[in-house]
Amino acid sequence: MFKRMDEEQRKELIRLIAGGVLWLGALFLPEGWVRIIAFLAIYAFVAFDVIKGVVEEFKEGEIFSEEFLMTIATVGALILGEYPEAVAVMLLYRVGEWFADLAVDSSKESLSSLAALRPDKARVIRNGKETEISPAEVQLGETIVVLPGERIALDGEIVSGRTTVDASSLTGESLPQEKAPGDELFSGCVNISGRVELKVLTVQGDSAVDRILKMTQDAKERKAKVEDFIHRFAKIYTPAVIIAAVLLAIIPSLFTGNWSDWVHKALVFLTVSCPCALVVSVPLSFFCGIGCASKRGVLVKGSVYLESLSHADICAFDKTGTLTTGGFRVSAVKSYGLEEKELIRLAAAAESFSSHPVAKCIASLDASEASKKLIYEKPGMGVCAEVDGHRVLVGNKSLLASESIAMDNAENGTLIAVDGSFSGIVEVTDDLKPSSAEAIKKLKALGIKKTVMLSGDKEASVKKVAAASGIDEAYHELLPKDKVDLMQKLTKQGKPVYVGDGINDAPVLAAANAGIAMGGLGSDAAIETADVVIMDDNLNRLPLVIRIARKTVRIAKENIVLSLAVKFAILGVSVFVKMPMYVAIAGDVGVLLLATLNALRAWRIAE
């Protein structure tokens, strides 16, 4: 942590060491004006920035702050003639703040290091020549060259060359990925082995790294309930403490006449009551938790969502692209009344109008030209098109039933009807991801009480995936509205999170306690819609980020209990015992340091 000090922090450390040395030297001066002037000068040297900050806060209407408390307490000590104590209190307070600032900056470094993933130069091909320019000057559609060992400056599609890419900085995936012409490469990744030429798909500001940076910056504004409570608590707590200190100084003094002792106790009371341990350590806990998740390829949009994940007890999943690979393949074709080749040709032409992954798979079976036009498409059901004069329906049973088509031989699969007659079935297989079953097992080990699949796919396919992955409940052939309705029911049963692709599942992502997008690196919709983005397709990141969230919230609560318990204990003693101010502040700063170090534990969690 100390190696990461910036220039300002080094200067501050030197000032604090100098102030401490001067304070020690002044203790050996004989009683008299020279000693008093020396302590006043040292106080001015140590307290200047704090008092300046109080003046600036007053101008902005911010009165009750920890700096204000420290200023009142130490100036009061000076008035009472307790010069060494006044300097010691301010010095210890500044030391505690310095350690806290250093810890916060250390935790921010990993998130801020994303900015370093953006190269300063891009090698663009213009007029047949390679020219190095700023990535901001590269236009959409231009071609850039990335050599082995270089970071990719902008998102692009490979038009020439093959390579392996290290995307660990963005996704957390340590294994290199093989890339060939037609594949997308994202800014911030490292080109390992081969020279490639990329057609630029995004300008600077819209690239993968830029979107991630924006999301992490926005995350600071989305505070968890615990974190928000601390800020609201501090605003009420500080004026209440000042009023209590004034009453402590005045009321007992009116009865005892011992103004000096009770004013001293009131100043100690003010000194100890500084809420800096809470104000610093709780937000720092969440910031460290978000940073820990980011290091492992999971972007959390704010501490409020990290807190939501910590309470999750139900996990709901989309099927395609979440539990399964999303890489469809045709496993069988059954034709009734038409030649198989003709059936495939008509179905492929009709499915070319749909963007559904299954439709794309079927459309890829035949690329021959045909006269075609879309009649209608029904989300969650299928398409109806006119192909070479034939009315072709491709979809599920609901689609064919809507046009009163008999399906006596219908089995599970994508059904095809031509000119009002049931004509065939195409069976499409989507393989389970290797990580799905293991992730579900880990979630159950974490105490997740129910896992649910919400899918628009056929019953047989959904049941097969549910059985293979270990899902508890599975729902099939759901429309987007159906998914939202089921998610609302799950919300009444517990605190569900929903994991989907972030593109087709926007309504249900919004309805969940927390919406999680899978494989969102190249998806604008995923980053915009979801609360949490898993940057690769590894579902094992989900139980990991839930563990991170639970640990983070637990640490934040530990810091609240620790800070308040020690603070109220010292406050209670200070009322009945004449406690030296520097002992009180040493205890307070000690709690601040302990809470800060405890918060930094959220930065590290084992895989």
Summary of the model, kept short:
Helices cover 52% and strands 17% of the residues. The protein has 607 residues and is α+β, with helices and mostly antiparallel strands.
Spell out the key features of this protein.
607 residues; alpha+beta; Calcium-transporting ATPase, cytoplasmic transduction domain A; Rossmann fold; seven-stranded mixed sheet; six-stranded antiparallel sheet; 21 helices; elongated
Describe the structure.
- The chain has 607 residues and is of the alpha+beta class.
- It folds into four domains: 2-112 and 218-287 and 550-603, no CATH class; 119-206, Calcium-transporting ATPase, cytoplasmic transduction domain A (Distorted Sandwich), CATH 2.70.150.10; 299-325 and 432-543, HAD superfamily/HAD-like (Rossmann fold), CATH 3.40.50; 329-429, Calcium-transporting ATPase, cytoplasmic domain N, CATH 3.40.1110.10.
- The protein contains 21 helices and 22 strands.
- The strands form four sheets. Strands 10-22-21-20-11-18-19 form a seven-stranded mixed β-sheet, with helices on both faces. Strands 2-1-3-9-4-7 form a six-stranded antiparallel β-sheet, with no helix packed on it.
- The longest helix has 36 residues, at 541-576.
- The two termini are 22 Å apart.
- The model has no long low-confidence stretch (mean pLDDT 81).
